[in-house]
């Protein structure tokens, strides 16, 4: 449990804040995204976050595969990451930390590891 305490606190806090912001916002998430992309300075930050999100998705996929999990297992985390960026990886880390060690461990093909190459 100690292993997931910090990511769990971050997940719960950030998710609650995200829910609050979405509930009280004057515009939809899509409108907000379009507004961010309309200026080069804010668009740069959005692109930067999504590059990081894409790299994180690669890591989650490879890590899940190395742990013997299917693509169907990791797909919900990837979809949440595509919309909410930080919440997907935080949820993945918490879920991974709460799972029993050694559960569903299959060796991935061709000796691939969970590291990002």
Molecular structure report:
This protein has 117 residues and is mostly helical. It has one domain. The chain has five helices and no strands. Helix 4 runs antiparallel to helix 5. The mean pLDDT is 87. Keywords: Membrane, Transmembrane, Transmembrane helix. This is DUF2834 domain-containing protein. It comes from Pseudomonas benzenivorans.
Which descriptors would you attach to this protein?
membrane, transmembrane, 117 residues, globular, transmembrane helix, mainly alpha, DUF2834 domain-containing protein, 0% strand
Overall structural class, as computed from helix and strand content, comes to: mainly alpha
Which stretches of 5+ consecutive residues score pLDDT under 50? none
Total domain modules: 1
Q: What is the first-to-last residue Cα distance?
A: 29 Å
Instruction: Give the overall form.
Output: globular
Largest sheet properties: none
Our Rg estimate from Cα atoms comes to 16 Å
Estimate the mean pLDDT confidence: 87
Binned, the helix content reads over 70%
How many strands appear in the DSSP assignment? 0
H-E order: HHHHH
Strand share of the residues? under 5%
Work out the helix count.
Answer: 5
């Amino acid at each position: 449990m100690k292993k997931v305490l910090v990511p769990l606190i971050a997940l719960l806090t950030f998710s609650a804040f995200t829910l609050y912001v979405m509930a009280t916002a004057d515009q939809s998430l899509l409108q907000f995204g379009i507004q961010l992309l309309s200026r080069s300075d804010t668009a740069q930050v959005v692109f930067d976050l999504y590059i990081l999100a894409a790299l994180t998705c690669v890591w989650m996929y490879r890590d899940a595969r190395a742990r013997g999990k299917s693509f169907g297992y990791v797909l919900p985390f990837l979809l949440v990451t595509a919309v909410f960026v930080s919440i997907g990886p935080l949820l993945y880390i918490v879920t991974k930390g709460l799972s029993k060690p050694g559960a569903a461990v299959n060796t991935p093909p061709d000796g691939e590891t969970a590291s990002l190459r």
